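Technical note accompanying the year-one report. For the benefit of new consortium partners, we illustrate the data format agreed upon in the data management plan: each record pairs a sequence with a structure-token string. No post-processing was applied to the example shown here.
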Amino acid sequence: MDKIDGPYYFFKLIRRLRNAVPQWVPMIGVEGREINLVPVDFVVRAMDHIADQEGLDGRAFSLTDPNPKTAGEVIDIFAGAAHAPQSSARVPPGAVDALLPVVRALLAMAPPFDLVADRVLADLGIPRAVLTYVNYPTSFDSREAQAALAGTDIRVPPLESYADKLWDYWERHLDPDLFRDRTLVGAVRGRAGLLGGATQVVEQQIPDEVLRLVRRVRGRDSLEKAVRGRMLLVTGASSGIGRSAALKIADAGGTVLLVARTPEKLEDTRELIERRGGTAHVHRCDLSDMDDIDRMADEVLAQHGHVDVLVNNAGRSIRRSIALSYDRFHDFERTMQLNYFGAVRLILKLLPVMRERRSGQIVNVSSIGVQTNTPRFSAYVASKAALDAFSRCIASEIVDDGVTITTIHMPLVRTPMIAPTKMYNRFPTITPEKAADMICEAIIHEPKRIATPLGTLGQLLYAINPKSIDYILNSAYKLFPDSRAARGEEVRTGPRTADATTEEASREQVAFAYLMRGVHW
């Protein structure tokens, strides 16, 4: 049917699991009771055949599955069709029945839990009433129908034989997120449903290539709606990721507040934005100086009144093994000062106005290293992890004030920050423009987190078996040595210098880097 109903309600949850967790990861599910699920073709053919037979008038026939599957089995079959994780164990119906009175009592005693449950279900697109049918003790007697259909080829096909077709159709045409208004305007108006039905019908008739093009254009339009008329502050905007993000935001109609330490480079970025028809303002600041952050933030609020979106992009990276860090405590102080304390100080200055206006977003550019725990980055990763933890803790305090926090676990990007490590010249990296696209995605959709599949897998594997991952990372630690810069040796630049050739990546290093694409080594 061309509507979301029955098992389709669980498809969004299945898609989320598929995008977040590898298919082989063991999961715990609910067995539930029998669910009657038959294809419309069977129902139509059975009705046509039985209605044509003599001597069957006045009798009832249940056109149902004589071998129904449980709710848990049905969900697992669709998970398999979606290449999502399936249940390795399922809680039996009796256990669920025994727990339900306790759960209901807890919800009655603590109404906030009931509200949280409703919000979680709404986010997944699952009406609470649907959960009743997962464990509902209903069975159908289809023996009369089976007897009437004897001798024909009309029978209920196994769900496994057509589940992939249902999943594919839902993902292409019925998934609410395909047509959901993700723009700022839509979010403010609280539009949570599909766009007009006519749009859905028309899009079903468009070839896939054209549909992909339309969605790309729609994505750009969404960025424009998300930033037009809004004030967005980007730190580290003088070069690299910050500069690219500022240009994209300004091109889409946002007013960009450019923040960095070097005013000349900021002015160059502002002039380029204005030549392209955008609006930008320069606010010079040394983000490792807490007093200077206070001055700049007060200046911003005095001149512009508020900041709608804060992008904490500025950062300092240090790649050095712990063996070379025993007498370099200042490495840890410097990374914490800029990457953590600087970002927190700026958040503390701008957040009160966001909460007062009941609108705002904080986008923190973190690192894939926080997920993968890569060696030689203890100073850098620790500072990013601190900001991640800070953000997770305050998120629950400010979510009902209309302020969201998005963390981007950024993979390796080709910027001046990685230039001292010469072997990175041959490593697979993303461009600052691609990194800026991730920031734009964060602004448009306001997700809790943006990460690469490899980063998420690394985080998951470390949670499951951390000691084994330590041995794997130790192999990488031995494969990728400290750079001359990390050893404190003078580094001469230029394509023909001895330094450039002696630190050139080996074939083994390049192969490993491509296998673990985007991870800092």
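Partners are asked to follow this layout when depositing records. The chain has two domains: 6-173, 228-515.
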